Amino acid sequence: MAHRPKRTFRPRRADSSDSDGAQETFAEPGETGEQAARGPAVQGPPSGRGHAEVAELLRRDRGRRRGRAWASSRRAATAAPRLDGSSDVPVDIPDAVFIQATYGKCKLARAQEDYISLDVKHAFTNSGMKKNSEDSESEPDDFKDIMPFTPKPQTLRQRMAEETKTRNEETSDDSQDEKNQDIWEQQQMRKAVKITKGQDIDLSYSRESQTVKKFDASISFPPVSLEIIKKQLNTRLTLLQDTHRSHLREYEKYIQDIKSSKSTIQNLENSSNQALSFKFYKSMKIYVENLIDCLNEKIISIQEIESAMHALLLKQAMIFMKRRQDELKHESAYLQQLSCTPETSINNSLAIDEKTQWILEEVESRRARRRQARVLSGNCTHEEGTSSDDELSSADMTDFQKSQGDILQDHKKIFEDVHSDFCNIQNILLKFQQWREKFPDSYYEAFISLCIPKLLNPLIRFQLIDWNPLKFDSIGLKQMPWFTSIKEFIDCGMEDSKKEDSSDKKILSTVINKTVIPRLTGFVEFIWDPLSTTQTTSLITQCRMILEEHSTCENEVNKGKQDLLKSIVSRMKKAIEDDVFIPLYPKSAVESRTSPHSKFQERQFWSGLKLFGNILLWNELLPEDILQELGLGKLLNRYLIIALLNAIPGPDVVKKCSQIAAYLPEKWFQNSAMRTSIPQLENFIQFLLQAARKLSRNEIRDEVKEIILILVKIKALNQAESFIEEYHLDHLRSVIKEFE
Description:
The chain has a domain at 580-739. The protein is built from 27 helices and no strands. The protein has helices at 33-38, 49-65, 96-111, 126-138, 156-195, 204-209, 226-270, 274-338, 342-347, 349-377, 394-412, 420-423, 425-438, 440-445, 448-463, 481-496, 506-526, 533-549, 554-579, 587-590, 596-616, 624-645, 651-663, 682-697, 701-713, 717-727, 733-739. Helix 19 runs parallel beside helix 22 (624-645). This is GCF C-terminal domain-containing protein. Residues 426-640 form the GCF C-terminal domain. Belongs to the GCF family.
């Protein structure tokens, strides 16, 4: 429904642009169209009473129109002035019949809710005019009582001339209001036609009332030239060309989209397994997300249990280390006191005895238990000082086992609420194996071989919590479930894959490098005791498997391997500095093998010799120069040779020298062209020659032969031949020829 535009309370001018000089006619019933058009137009001034009536009616009508908004929709027709500007313009003055009809129409509109009806044709009769005239006469004329506060009214001609003069100034303000008014009237007429469809309604009045706009020559327009027109046309053409080009670009884009869509549709139609692949990828995505969420939640518990187990083993290792150092310190102090004068011994006896008595008794009791155990086992060649001395008291052992049991109990609870598909390594690898078999291209393009070690890291650490590589009965990596599962996964991939350099081959080495080696390094740095042959042998076994058999990807394993080897070397250096102590006593104090000084010195020498042998066990894993520096340079030449020089030459010295030679790796002397031993053994060779000379003088031939065999074994052939020639030991030349 159209809204009625706002009315303007400005009376319309007779010569408005809407009328343009046209005159409104109202035809009574019975009149023809020509009569209606010609009837009210009266040329020239009327005469007599008619002229006075016309003037009076015009004055009344003008007074009423000032207070009605709807009155602007109908205008009295007046003649427009001539365009030539002449002042003698004839004016059409309406007659009494036309004015009376207009007044009656206005009254009817007031009675019908203050608007002019467009769907009723009113017929004006003489009786009606008389009645309306009587009604109008009976109404009070309020305007007659108005006091004249304005100048004397102008004549009709003067008013028309004044309005004509100011029309051009008001045209711009009134044109929009008149346009809205005309649009609203037309809408109301169209609605009236729709409502009264089927009825015979004469719309000739509304058609005749419409005016035709005429060009107003008084309105000024900007000057127009050919250049201005050309410029505007070029501007318009440029805009159209730009629009056309943008439309072309959009058109090309749409064409490409259509081609791409058709190609996608064709590919999807040709690929019958797209739905299955999508379903598989979606299920795999959900599975991996759930797996990651599970591992992220459990990794905290795994780290806590792992730290608790590591702390427990570290505590035990620190107990052994501190106990050994305390016992060494107190026993050495006790023997040193015994070497002092009796007066000094008596003065310090109370303080020393109270402090060392209990420790010495504990040490001796453990030694007695170990000797008894060796006798029962039939081991009679054991030397004092080569025992690890890692026994715990019953109370400490009970506490350790209880703590370890609690940790392992919590360890079992970590994945007890998890489905096997998310905590079993074999089931997890089976999912990825299905992916590799069904869609190998996407499997390798996604670099799954780099993701699997990260996914398995928490689960492998979970399985390694109760793994101690320093125990002689510890399970090897090859027997662990995660190792066998990964190995089978790699083997299946090598059979199915056509690629010789499949990336899945690196999974096992990456797992070892990222998971196993860091844990092994922690054991080496904090828990491993290099003086323990059992721990060293077990550790070497694990390291040999890790560093030799699974070094297929050297670029990745190299860093972890180097870190592990550095920690091993660093730990052995620390053991040489902290745990090796061979005291030197006067010969009078060590002449008797049963004296406390002699026993203590022997135990410390064999303890250092045991460390020497444990260091050289790494000969296949550590570089030769590092081993020679540690074993020969720092330990043999600095500690063992000095103790041998202080000893009395005899069978015991030869036995010790033979044990030193037995620990030396044969790999160092495999060169058949060698006639001189390695430089780091020069001091040892000189000691052997010195001992052989002393024994030759005493005619101890068996020990001399043993020394010659040691020289030959370590490739000191030139020194051995010189000694044989010097002492005319021709029967020993055959020994040299056997090794040549």
